[in-house]
Amino acid sequence: MSRGLLIVVSGPAGSGKGTVNSQLVATGDFVFSVSATTRAPRPGEVNGVNYHFIDREEFQRRIDDNGFLEYTTYCDNFYGTPLKEALAVLDSGKNLILEIECDGAKNVKRIFPDAVLIMLIPPTFSIQEERLRGRATETEEVIRARLEKSKVEMGCFEHYDYVVINQDEGAKKAALDIINITKSEKKRTSRRLEVKEHFYE
Ligand code: 5GP
Question: According to the model, what pLDDT value does residue 141 have?
């Protein structure tokens, strides 16, 4: 059985990362990596499902134990990808999705050069703005801050292997694009050396 792909999906607020990733997980071929964070849970978030919510001391202890594949600070909080869980998923043959920001994505690529980095973006800035306001879950100040932050995230564009534009609200097309990228990536010669090895058997 071949190892799963390590897939990073990043994108600005309103790009629909959560919707796309749930659709990928629903296929049964992808597993979502649950990060650890020191930020407080938002209403509706479940410990162990959305994040492992831990305090700073515990986060530091895990850093010291080399427990993270990568970690970063974002808006004064720590976020990290648990290493052991990530390797177990990849060994099982399933594809692992890391929904992480740009610095983390760059670190992943440095450590695992065969990771696939995907930037998910809304079709236009004004549609992104509409989507964020449509959610009506955040104050005007937070929406503005998130839109500003997304400009910074778009600055990372060139570090990614693929860009997927999330056109429809249901995100079906974007999820399909990522499934197709995964299928092609798995056919890369560098991932299929055993084909040549066993050809004359
Ligand atoms: P939020 O607080 O909105 O859930 O996440 C803030 C940002 O941190 C998002 O861009 C999210 O993708 C990113 N993030 C979540 N988990 C991790 C992680 O384990 N590592 C890194 N580098 N970024 C993460």
Answer: 87
